[in-house]
Amino acid sequence: MKPQVLLSGASGLIGTALREILAQEGYGCKQLVRRPARTSEELEWNPQSGKTPDCNRLSGTEIAIHLSGANISSTRWTDARKRVLVQSRVEPVRALAAALCQTEPRPKVLVCASAIGIYGERGDEVVDENSAPGQGFLPETCLAWEAAAAEAAACGIRVVSARFGIVLSPRGGALAKMLPLFRLGLGGPLGNGREWMSWISLEDTARALIFLGQRAIDDPSAPLVEAVNVVAPNPVRNADFTRQLGHVLHRPAILPAPAFALRLVFGEMADQALLASTRVAPTRLQQNGFEFHHPALAEALRHELQ
Ligand SMILES: NC(=O)c1ccc[n+]([C@@H]2O[C@H](COP(=O)([O-])OP(=O)(O)OC[C@H]3O[C@@H](n4cnc5c(N)ncnc54)[C@H](OP(=O)(O)O)[C@@H]3O)[C@@H](O)[C@H]2O)c1
């Protein structure tokens, strides 16, 4: 029988895709919801106010996957918004870790979302899980997020921080924001186009989460706490990404978005997220035998946009 999964942030981009694949593969899935529960598969929690799920109802969970957090790119990073971004990540996973530790029998693994934003701006350097974190708001936020998740290890629960790259989907995230302009033939490279983009298809993202949870159960040598880059093995420069997206959409993609204009519109987010160059290798996923369905960008774009 497949293990029982507990999922937070289930209504989001990755959570929605993950629920579909879990159902296809025969996993049971309970969801933590921030509203009154509507079905027996839903458990109410209020991560911000500290209302944790009822531990009796968590019993039977073997894999917890925690994806919730206020959206990073939906609005400008004012000081108030930055506080929301941090608080909606650090406190909820800490509360969840405590609840999982009190659950009998204890779940085997907590897979918690993180981001390749932890590496910061790196130019042409290839970074993997052994690379040091960068500096700035995103790296600091990711570090605090991963440290809070790691608290579950104190009671023997394995903890995996899944450092997501740019998840490709027309339903949300960076690609969804680019699509309207590109479909009008008004897309083009960001900044000087030389920044590295480390991307992954939405389908491979969801599959990787299941792979990581399952591995923590099946492989006794899996580390107690580990970070894993969830990116495809072929990052590309922004100009290349732009060219391939235009090609898949059969539209020209030559109108550049200059760095100064992006800074004007997006403020600090422009340099830390849109213009940051991060060339990330999925070393641990590959070492552990994960097989990407979409290792090449053009095919991944075609798959997600079909
Ligand atoms: N998509 C990417 O390219 C990408 C890249 C790097 C990292 N990540 C990270 O991976 C996680 C999942 O990504 P996603 O793209 O699925 O995100 P998403 O679509 O924004 O969904 C996140 C979910 O978190 C919950 N949520 C929203 N606001 C919240 C708040 N203020 N406090 C607590 N929970 C809140 C919501 O679920 P409920 O209403 O069901 O609770 C929401 O559906 C996020 O933490 C994101 O930062 C994503």
UniProtKB/TrEMBL annotation:
InterPro entries: DUF1731, Epimerase_deHydtase, NAD(P)-bd_dom_sf, SDR39U1. It comes from the Bacteria. Transmembrane segments: none annotated. Residues 5-215 form the NAD-dependent epimerase/dehydratase domain. Residues 257-303 form the DUF1731 domain. Belongs to the NAD(P)-dependent epimerase/dehydratase family. SDR39U1 subfamily. This is TIGR01777 family protein.
